Amino acid sequence: MKLKTYLLGGLCMALAWQAQAQTAPTKPAAPRPAAAKPAPAKPAAAPAAEATGTATLGGGGGSGSKAAPILTREELRTCLKQEEMVRTRLEELRSRRGPLDTEKAEIAVEQDVVRAARAPLDEAKKKADDLSVRLRDYAARVESWNTRVAEFNASGRTGAAAERRNSEFKREREEIEVQKKSLDVERDAVLGESQAAVTAYNTRVAALDTRVSDWNQRNAQWNEASKALETERQDWVDQCGNRRYREDDEKAIRAGR
């Protein structure tokens, strides 16, 4: 009696590792230093060569006073308003720097946690690799059995020896079927565990990547605002802070006149 060769059926010949873990997000960009705060508007003693009863908003000697005329009262009024606006915006900008720095530190901690979270992926991959080796061994056993059965069938042998050989093939086939069922169960378990580990890791990485991207965007906006404010502050220094004004005009303005 001839034996039919044993087919592998639905059993995978090898287990592909599908842990396509996402790349860890880049670190947040380092913040730029805040713009320097304008010097307090404290008048300095006027040099002898300058007009008496004058001062500068920048508190210096008014290096540009000889080249530029003394501020009129309306120009001084405008300069004082601009100075207050710059101070207010600077304080607001500084208040935004603290939370950004705090969040940057939190992101760094989360990045370390995410890196450590790769351990389950590595363990799942090891199990998948081990199973792949056993699947290849199983496939080789099936191929060997099929080859030996084909050779036995082609020999046309009969008799008691042939019957014993036939029984041996049947027993081995039963063992192969038991092995197949066991490998099927293990394969499904490993695939499920691997996919769960990959999904959990990728979800966490995606969330962190989104947080880093959002932080970098807000940090870039802060840097641009800081740069713009520093330009505006320097313009104020050139147009207002380094020019002299009459102290009587300042007193009148602060008195509401």
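[next item in queue]
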Amino acid sequence: MLQNKDFSYQLYMVFQLALREYVGTLPFDELLEKKESITPFILEAVKASTEALGVEVSGFGIRDIILPGDVKEIMNQVLIAEKKAQANIIMRREETASTRSLLNTARLMEENAMLWKLKEMEYVEKIADKISNISVNGNGVLIDQLKQILVSQK
């Protein structure tokens, strides 16, 4: 260290070259997955060079991988696309389950007239909840028509 006044810059360069050697061999996704395995490789790669500088490196770690702006933007777009695809899959599953449920209900109603009538009454009740007034004008035929709709014929 006494013979080399610029040892910190040289140490920095040794680490930079070792990191670039490691990073250059991996695809981007694999690099992010193997972030923890960088440390042993770098320690071994810089060992001889740092000893020549009179420095012993006993530990090393990667805190963050900082991406250039355009790569970060691309990664964000990929993440958004993946999340949209996942949401789309979930929505399709729910739609399929809902359609199956409707189909099962329709089959049951087709097989059971009483169930069909109960469902009709349920819908009439829902409609009636939304109506505040009913004004009936006519000569009694309207009442008979309502009876035909609401009362089952035998």
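[queue empty]
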